[in-house]
From TrEMBL:
Origin species: Streptomyces chryseus
Main subcellular localisation: membrane
The Vitamin K epoxide reductase domain, residue ranges: 25-166
Composition-biased stretches (Basic and acidic residues): 1-10
Protein name: Membrane protein
Pfam families linked: VKOR
Amino acid sequence: MTTAAVDDRTSNGTQDGPKGATGSGRPLALLLVITGLAGLLASWVITLDKIKLLEDPGFEPGCSLNPVVACGNIMKSEQAEAFGFPNPMLGLVTYAMVVSIGVGLLAGARYRRWFWLGLNAGTLFGVGFCTWLQYQSLYNIGSLCLWCCLAWVATIVMFCYVTTHNIKHRLLPAPKGLRSVLIEFHWLPPVLWIGIIGMLILTRWWTFWTS
């Protein structure tokens, strides 16, 4: 993406509209649709595998490739039902909502400040929950799920760009310097964030990867 992804212009119909509503540029709208679909796909596949696992305890998901990349271990863990039901069921609802919001923006929708802040809060909860799951996966369960990793990446990118959009439009307070840096280097936070997770995964199972 270029700076145009977050530097919304009046010509793109993204500045504050009537009654304080704010839209977005096409790049952000597409990003929400794509990341939402990625998370939705991951949630759907994990849900199907979870159902098969409940029907047959001996079932091995297709993404269980080796002792480290073992989705079955994740699905059988207590952490896989953090709220009393399978985690991907939450993803089926929330990622679908993100896709709907992105499609609305592509159609020219404008949302009020409370809506954008609500979306920001939702993505913040998402990355917080994903961070907890990452820790549990790496250091307690001791396995990785590739579909979970896809959902992690989608949620991180989603959160970073929604936050950047809200800071750009002053829907979130931020110093002028920070606003300028985020607009110019909007790609840096998600790249660093995902890179750190990659390094943690690499070092956690260094012996396995290098053997």
